[in-house]
Amino acid sequence: MSADKNIINKSFEKIEKAGIRFDIPKSKLPKEVQDEIASMADGTYTITPKSERDFAQYKLKLAEKHDKLIAKFANKSPNFAKFIPKKDVELPWNIVKDGQSVYLQNIREGKSLFGEVTDIMPFSDKKEYEKLSEEIKKQWLSKQYPQADILPSYKTRTLYNDANYFTLRTEDGRLQAIANIEIQDNGEVWGRNLNTAPWNQGKNAEIRGAGTAIIARMVSFCLETGNKTLKFATNKPENIKLYKSLGMVKDGTKNINGENYTVLKFDEATMKAYLNKYQINLTC
Q: I need a surface site. Which of 34, 173, 216, 271 has the fewest CB within 10 A?
């Protein structure tokens, strides 16, 4: 607060008369706040910004994930090493973390809302895939969405345990988008099966920003794992336009089931440039 001392004192008097109290028992404060108070008392409190502390914690999480995946991939193709976070990689502060909360826009209601991006690691417990499959069934397939394009793998609820999946859910538990990254036989890293929820497609789309949030996490994943390129293939002009707007460049074509798809790619520089543009959507 910035004002004359007398004005501030009068303001607090009015607050007190209104019945607003600040003497909340410490036991009723959130645990995170209690821990912060305790650290002030014992002298371990730090003024390091929360974003920096969170980033440091996330790097520890990546180190644990590295060790876990090393063991998981011990008897599998060497290509799976491309899914393992690098311990010595220099990460930009604005990566989209596994578990990151991001801002989305509810177009219908004209307000912002939170979405959380989370990963499903390759060869995870089958319960993870069963849960995702049930969400797709109940939320995406139980109702007809004439304007929506749902990919065949999600229509049949076919999930590949040798891929790394990325999901985006809002606070109400709705699944807003899914995608995965696969390692091709030649070692290339490809983004596959990117699909936004059916209610986010068409002229009456409800939520804006779901697709770009998933892509931001996929880009961050590539930087975490030391992969220098990320490729997408599409036969839809609107997707080509979107990918180009994010900084991707054309990289030839790819024949998929007899049809030529346009290939677009990020390199390391354009991945970092995209995260610089996307960072305004990051929450604490």
A: 173
